[in-house]
Amino acid sequence: MRRWRSATAPMALILLSVGATLWTRAAASNRVPLQATWRAPSGERAPENVRVRVQVLNGTTTHGLARRATSVLRDRGFDVVEVGNGTSGGDTTLVIDLSGHPDWAKRIARSMAPARIETRRDSSRYLDIAVVVGAAWRPPADPLHP
Predict the structure, then answer these.
(1) What are the sequence ranges of the domains in the chain?
(2) What is the mean pLDDT of the chain?
(3) CA–CA separation, 29 vs 35, rounded Å?
(4) 9-33: b or e for each residue (b if 16 or more CB lie within 10 Å)?
(5) Per DSSP, what are the bridge partners of residue 57?
(6) pTM
(7) Where would a tag sit more exposed on the chain, N or C end, judged by fewer CB atoms within 10 A?
């Protein structure tokens, strides 16, 4: 009986270390490296050497959504000249082409998906595109800058 007791402690220690090793390897295989979690902003960019003047309006009750959309569009080369609140209240983001450039509106709509495009030509306005951010739009995650 003493023999059995003296062999139990080393066996328990061996089993404990094997279990800890297997658990550590399983946890490490499920972990995603930090480089793989961060993605560069995707989406369409503004045309090269063209100033596309954009107005961004928050059509939701979520505070700061127009500001986040402004950051996204500016990161992609669009010139956001006006930010404010709108009264749309819809789920889908509305991109309004004011200057007769459907390609610019499509680029912004792809960056702000899901979005729909309308054309309302207005030559008296200073703006090229107006964006009314809808409730279905989700801003991309901010990268971690330690």
Answers:
(1) 2-35, 53-133
(2) 82
(3) 15
(4) eeeeeeeeeeeeeeeeeeeeeeeee
(5) 84, 132
(6) 0.67
(7) C
